[in-house]
Amino acid sequence: MNSLLLYKVQKMLGGFLKGLLLAFVITFYMFTNSNAQHITKNDSLRIENLIKGANSSLMKYNYDETIDLAYVSYLESDSLSYSSGIKRSLLLLADAYKAKTAYSSSLNYYLQAEAEIEKQKNVEELVRVNYKTGELFFEWGVPEKALAYFNKVLAVEKGVLSETDKIELLNRKAETHLKLNQNGKALDTYNELLKVFRKNDNKEQIINTLKKIASVYTLQNRYEDALTSNFEILEVNKQLNDTASMATSCNGIGFLYKSLSKLPEALSYFEQALEYNELMDKKGANKNAIISNLINIGVIYQSLGDYRGSIRSFNKALKVVEGEGSDVEIAVIHNYLASIYYNSGNYPEARKHTQHAIDLLQGTENIRMLASSQKRLSHIYEKTGNYEKALESYQEYSVTKDSLLYRQQLNQEKEQYKQFLAETVEKQSKLELIDQEMKALELRNEKVKSEKEKQEVELQLKEQQLQNASLANEQLQREKQMQKLVLIQEQIEAQKKDQEITVLEQKRDLQALQLKQSEILKKERQKELELQKSKLDLQESQLKSSKERQQYLIWTAGLFFVILILIFSGFIMKRRDNKILLSQYEKINEQKEKIELINKELVQLNEEKNSLIGIVAHDLKSPLNQISGILDIIKLTSRGQTKEQQEYMEKIFESVKRLRNMVTKILDVNAIESKTLNLKTEKVDLPEVLNEVISRFEEMANKKGIAIHKQIESNLPPVNVDVEYTSEVFENLLSNAVKYSPLDEEITVKMAAQNSSIRIEFIDKGQGISREDMKNLFGRYHKLSARPTAGEDSTGLGLSIVKKYVEAMNGKVWCES
Questions:
Q1: Average pLDDT over residues 575-580
Q2: What is residue 754's three-state secondary structure?
Q3: Do residues 36 and 29 touch, judged by C-beta distance below 8 A?
Q4: How many CB atoms lie within 10 A of CB 98?
């Protein structure tokens, strides 16, 4: 009886334990459900509607509305851990910000979308977002980063990218290489594309790719290779019977031959292009291509020296452009014609076309062309001897050149250069900003990851606490049951006598119960072991988290230390640079002092030289005058001299005369330099002075068989000059003309009124003056490469004295050869 009762109690206890375990499971399920979010059909439908609306706004270019809707869908998707919604919302935000050129924000969302897609391990979507990120960098002007993403996309397994996508990507990659000035790599990429298009026999794409290859070859100055590509383009266009493209190809080939200085070949292809364009013109095509061809042909003829062919071509272009072109376009053709006529020496035609160009350009914004035309007109008038008009045109050119609009154009070029520098700096800042964004994103991802790990640990702790509470409750129930069991045992002992019949059965049942109890104890121990193991796992996780935090602290401290080192290094470098600058400044000051000292010494030496020359020349003048006087006395008193003695006397007299003239000129130069000229200006009849000088040189000219022709205008007014200095100027100029004229030639002396002054010309038929000699013509002591034709002496002082005297009398002297 006692055994049966104990068995019943045991059954009741087992049922109770099962119920308790079920309650624990339900409680745990409710607890976990309270901390988890489930996406209902309504939630997903609401998010999908938001994404659909954002997509629609993006297609309508309403980017602000796209951003608002996508951000709301992102927040809701994130709160519900709806991965698909998060990914699509981030991509919409990135696309909208990219369209608004807010590249920094766009990059942030693309990188977040990339991280979300990597979790899902969706290769196709990852390729798509990487390509979009590359496109973003390309548009942002950061080709280095764009190239890295394009290469990343191209590195994926075959089959992920379609052929169309691959072609588009290779084109973009080649453009990126060009932006980075990696012309060789761009060429390799275009050749890879060309193989694909040739395989598919896509003639249109073959032509486009060959054009790009030719342009890269041209950038590399590989004109022969560029020609090969253009010839292939021409052949394909002929197969397609595309006349317009054939004309364009011939033009391109012509320009390449021109770059190679193969002008006949260039002319041939420009003429072919003209034939194609004229054929198109019969069908009503645009005449601009014909005008361009005619200009190219005219330029080539001009380069070949065929001015007639060039003029013929430009006149044809002028007829076409006068019918349809603007004033500036017509002026361009007139300028071309003016340049050709000017170079060929046809100054009247050059003047006519230049004046046409100026009239057309007046009032337009093309100030530079107007200034160039005015300058050419000034040169034309100067060549034709109309100096007054030449001066007037040059003044107009100066006014135009200095005009406000001209300065604005120059300032615009300067601003463009500044903008180029600013863009370079901006590009560097973009790269730094991008690196910061990517680092910030990595930190955010790490933070999110650590937060999730923290939540998981907290969840495990709550689960453990719940399990501990359940076990404590179970233990309490067990103790209550044991107390009841003790009470029942006391009742059993009281009824022991009544139960002796079933002792054996009770013992057997008791053994079974003990066996079950031992199993229960064994399970409890196993649970305790599992609990200990979970505690150890928790401790290990906490230890790992602690190590990671320590690692972050170490990295932060290291980064701070590196920044300190960089700051200190910068300070040291700045101090060193300051020392170098100070040293250089001291050296410059020292050099400046040395230069000033040398300048003082040079000034002193120049003064001493002038003084010495003056003293020597002055001291030489008296003895020479005495020698000259003695020679005159000998001439008058000596009779019966032989012919040989008379010749010797003449030679001595001539030598003394030359030496005295040289001393006089040296003294004149010294007086000019010391600014001690005493001008005695008076009203003078210049023709009379000139005739007197010419009469003195007629004998000298007759010895060389030279005829002096005078062209002196009548009724010239008197001029306020110094007679002696004017006479000496005429003597020097006429002396040079006689010295440097060949035997039996002519010298022409002209005098005529010009405006408010008188122009005097001494014209000889000598060998001319070189450009190098022209620079030193009016310098002191300079002897020219040309020599006197009869071996006459030259001191190199005559023209320098002429220049000083003329300028002292407010005149002007120059030479034309």
A1: 84
A2: strand
A3: no
A4: 22
Lowest mean pLDDT among 123-132, 154-163, 190-199, 724-733: 154-163
Any idea of the CA torsion for 214, 216, 222, 225, to the nearest 10 degrees?
A: -30
Check residue 420 and give its pLDDT. 54
Right CATH for 679-808 from 3.30.565.10, 3.40.50.10490, 3.40.50.2000, 3.90.480.10: 3.30.565.10
pLDDT tier at 299, thresholds 50, 70, 90: very high
DSSP strand pairing (719-722 vs 757-763): unpaired
- pLDDT, averaged across the chain: 78
From the list 728, 618, 733, 603, the residue with the least C-alpha distance to 671 is 618
Given a cut of 50, whether residue 651 has pLDDT beyond it is yes
- Contact by Cβ (8 Å): 2, 499: yes
Residue 559 pLDDT: 84
280 token code pair: 């198109």
pLDDT band at 808 (very low <50, low <70, confident <90, very high): confident
Dihedral Cα 765, 770, 771, 775, nearest 10 deg = -90
Tokens 């073959």 map to which residue? 206
pLDDT digits (tens, 9 = 90+) for 63-95: 999 999 999 999 999 988 898 899 999 999 999
Q: Of 332, 419, 414, which is closest to residue 369 (Cα–Cα)?
A: 332
**Average pLDDT value for residue range 561-571:** 86
Q: How far is CA 382 from CA 150, 368, 390, 777, in A?
A: 63, 21, 5, 22
Handedness of CA 271, 274, 276, 282 (dihedral sign): negative
Confidence of residue 480 (pLDDT cuts 50, 70, 90): low
The span from the CA of 798 to the CA of 802, in Å, is 6
Please tell me the class of the 38-121 domain: mainly alpha
Sign for the pseudo-dihedral over CA of 204, 208, 211, 213: negative
Pairwise CA distance, residues 392 & 380, whole Å: 12
Q: Which two tokens stand for residue 14?
A: 């087992």
- Alpha-helix residue ranges (DSSP H) falling in 141-202: 143-154, 163-179, 183-200
Non-local CB neighbours of 639 within 8 Å, separated by 6+ positions: none
Q: Where are the domains of the chain?
A: 38-121, 544-676, 679-808
pLDDT tens digits for range 743-763: 888 999 999 998 889 999 999
On whether the CB atoms of residues 4 and 502 are closer than 8 A, the answer is yes
The Cα–Cα gap between 89 and 77 comes to 8
Structure tokens at 125: 């979507």
| 331, 371, 758, 802 from 360: Cα distances, Å | 6, 13, 38, 46
The one-letter amino acid at 759: R
Rg, Å, the chain Cα set: 54
Is residue 140 pLDDT above 80, yes or no?
yes
Summarised one tens digit per residue, pLDDT across range 615-624 is 665 566 667 7
Matching residue, tokens 């019949």: 501
Q: Which residues are CB-contacts of 211 (< 8 A; sequence separation ≥ 6)?
A: 229, 233
Residue 81 corresponds to which tokens in the numbers above? 């851990």
3-state secondary structure of 750: strand
pTM above 0.85, yes or no: no
Phi-psi region of 761 (alpha: psi -120 to 50; beta: other; left: phi over 0): beta
